[in-house]
């Protein structure tokens, strides 16, 4: 069973920063239809009245014990809560009703209607695991004396709940076994400081990962029947990334990933009895998913193909792919099996359609759509498919990017533009649905979501290009993206801004700081302003994550001069173009003081600066009312400082 990927406390292995949920789609260059007449225009509130549906995490049980419901997390109420969606169709039923804190659904119980959920307070990322009892009350499963907890999974016989929980004096979580009837817990494994990845269904084996660098990691196995001392199973020379996917349902093998044989990560099968390693799955892109149905009859595999997911479900007995009927064009994701393997739940999404939940019969392939996420007041045809473009960065490096061309943009009616920088470091601008981007495009802005060097998904060489060189060539890739936009005859070359969140917010700030004339304005969404402070704060991270971050960004003990040199705060006097800063007051990753200090410094320049702080948010805005307020602020700022001015041609 793999650890829940929906955890509020999850973060990139190489970073303490989350990626801004930016999206894009398609292939090659803008289609000729892009210059069609403008479609209907929608408000920010209409875009965010679209509902976000997420199936219960892969470590849990998505189908109820009687097969009547699938478990989802949704923001239908404006705050994320747990919902039961009827398999036969009908309105989702709210199982939790928080009006303040995000609650994420993780799993049904195997024999009754209880569920497991996780929640923090105001985005502080100190998440705790709860049981939602049959009467609707919530019971905290966090062991006594522990400060955080998360679901790792269920034992194969469903007799135990495995959770990860952290003590106040420890950075890494330990594993506890919880009795689902009495809720009594016992310590199962004390973590020596690694990342816990999975437990075998029989409860004997724990798979762990240790980061030696941002692109260098190892997999260890701990045999709980033999003392539990972790044993290295991926010895290697040089920099190789390893990761854990899943144990096989019979607990005979571990499926793990490695990029040792080429640019991309493939999967391998490690025999737990013999230690033999065999090639499992390879392709022209990184493998992103490899897991099984409860009995092992079906296998799910996925690749990250040019920033979109290509997923397949295969019958292991016959080797034949499962064909699902009557589903819309888009990416299939979050595949979850019913316990008896008669049905499978999954999502389908695209750059013009948010994820909707479907259920299919595995024998016939017949599919039923359970949700319609897009606001019914909006037409999907009014939204814009992204296309993948590529341009040359310095040194001849090819930079992929996802382009949204607004309808009605022509040489005679050029559009203003926005370059979007993703989070990370090491994130990726994906070709998924983004209300943030679609709203701006719907209001006439061309958006180019850049995958600068250092982004994941394009091979290990590309990924490593910005190590200990952040704010340098990767920043110039973003600036070159702005020039690519200006070179299009349908983009106004004097009306291009830069925008990003988290590490992307840093890049937006760095563009205005170190290349002051490169953009007309910038939007910084909880971006790092002071790397010295941020990396010193990272000392509190678990050793494995801290090691990876310092390998990528540099150790503050030895690289303080460079960190100061690339930090916008210490050079804020250079900022002369308008700036909008967005910040969550409870952000534990980019502290509010960083934005406070930068805003004060920019104001001292006499430069226009706007500052929006959400008192009930952390690193990412989860409440719908706040997301709407933020989106309205983005558009208002861009309209004022980018669209409106009649600046001279460049």
From TrEMBL:
Entry's Gene Ontology BP terms: proteolysis
Location of the Peptidase S9 prolyl oligopeptidase catalytic domain: 433-642
Residues in the signal sequence: 1-21
Keyword Oxidoreductase: no
UniProt KW Cell inner membrane keyword: no
Assigned keywords, A-Z: Hydrolase, Protease, Serine protease, Signal
Stored Pfam families: Peptidase_S9 (PF00326), Peptidase_S9_N (PF02897)
Record-annotated Peptidase S9A N-terminal domain positions: 106-369
One GO MF term attached to the UniProt entry: serine-type endopeptidase activity
InterPro entries attached to this UniProt entry: 6-blade_b-propeller_TolB-like, AB_hydrolase_fold, Pept_S9A_N, Peptidase_S9_cat, Peptidase_S9A
Name the UniProt record assigns to this protein: S9 family peptidase
């Amino acid at each position: 069973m793999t650890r829940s990927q929906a955890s509020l406390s999850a973060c990139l292995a190489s970073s303490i920063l989350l990626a801004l949920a930016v999206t894009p789609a398609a292939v090659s260059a803008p289609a000729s239809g892009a210059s069609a007449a403008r479609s209907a225009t929608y408000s920010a509130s209409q875009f965010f009245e679209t509902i976000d549906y997420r199936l219960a995490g892969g470590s849990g049980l998505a189908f109820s014990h009687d097969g009547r419901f699938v478990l989802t997390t949704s923001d239908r109420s404006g705050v994320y809560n747990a919902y039961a969606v009827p398999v036969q169709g009908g309105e989702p039923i709210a199982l939790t009703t928080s009006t303040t804190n995000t609650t994420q659904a993780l799993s049904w119980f195997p024999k009754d209607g209880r569920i497991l959920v996780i929640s923090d307070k105001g985005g502080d990322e100190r998440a705790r695991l709860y049981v939602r009892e049959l009467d609707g009350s919530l019971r905290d499963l966090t062991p006594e004396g522990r400060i955080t907890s998360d679901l790792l999974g269920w034992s194969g016989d469903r007799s135990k709940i495995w959770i990860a929980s952290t003590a106040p004096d420890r950075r890494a979580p330990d594993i506890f076994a919880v009795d689902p009837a009495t809720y009594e817990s016992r310590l199962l494994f004390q973590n020596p400081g690694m990342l816990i990845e999975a437990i075998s269904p029989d409860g004997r084996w724990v798979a762990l990962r240790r980061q030696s660098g941002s692109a260098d990691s190892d997999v260890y196995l701990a045999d709980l029947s033999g003392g539990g001392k972790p044993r290295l199973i991926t010895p290697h020379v040089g920099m190789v990334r390893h990761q854990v996917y899943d144990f096989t349902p019979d607990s005979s093998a571990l499926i793990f990933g490695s990029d040792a044989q080429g640019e991309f990560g493939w999967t391998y099968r490690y025999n737990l009895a013999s230690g033999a390693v065999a090639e499992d799955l390879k392709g022209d892109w990184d493998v992103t998913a490899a897991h099984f149905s409860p009995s092992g009859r079906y296998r799910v595999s996925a690749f990250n193909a040019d920033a979109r997911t290509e997923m397949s479900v295969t019958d292991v007995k016959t080797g034949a792919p499962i064909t699902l009927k009557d589903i819309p064009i888009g990416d299939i994701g979050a595949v979850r099996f019913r316990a008896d393997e008669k049905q499978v739940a999954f999502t389908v999404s695209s750059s013009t359609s948010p994820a909707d939940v479907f259920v299919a019969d595995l024998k016939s392939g017949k599919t039923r759509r359970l949700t319609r996420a897009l606001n019914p007041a909006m037409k999907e045809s009014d939204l814009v498919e992204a296309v993948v473009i590529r341009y040359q960065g310095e040194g001849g490096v090819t930079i992929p990017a996802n382009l949204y061309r607004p309808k009605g943009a022509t040489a005679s009616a050029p559009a203003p533009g926005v370059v979007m920088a993703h989070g990370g470091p090491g994130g990726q601008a994906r070709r998924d649905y983004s209300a943030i981007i679609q709203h701006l495009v719907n209001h006439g802005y061309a958006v180019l979501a850049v995958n600068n060097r250092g982004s994941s998904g394009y091979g290990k060489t590309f990924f490593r290009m910005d190590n200990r060189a952040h704010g340098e060539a990767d920043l110039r890739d973003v600036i070159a993206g702005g020039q690519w936009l200006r070179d299009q005859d349908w983009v106004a070359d004097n009306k291009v801004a830069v925008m990003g969140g988290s590490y992307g917010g840093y890049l937006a700030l760095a563009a205005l700081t170190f290349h002051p004339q490169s953009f007309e304005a910038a939007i910084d969404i909880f971006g790092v302003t002071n790397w010295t402070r941020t990396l010193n704060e990272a000392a509190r991270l678990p050793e494995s994550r801290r090691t990876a971050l310092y390998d990528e960004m540099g150790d503050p003990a030895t690289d303080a001069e460079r960190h100061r040199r690339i930090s916008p705060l210490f050079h804020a006097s250079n900022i002369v173009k308008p700036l909008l800063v967005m910040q969550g007051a409870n952000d534990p990753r980019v502290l509010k003081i960083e934005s406070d200090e930068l805003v004060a410094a920019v104001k001292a320049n006499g430069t226009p600066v706007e500052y929006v702080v959400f008192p009930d948010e952390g690193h990412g805005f989860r409440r719908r009312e706040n997301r709407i307020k933020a989106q309205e602020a983005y558009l208002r700022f861009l309209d004022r400082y980018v669209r409106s001015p009649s600046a001279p041609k460049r």
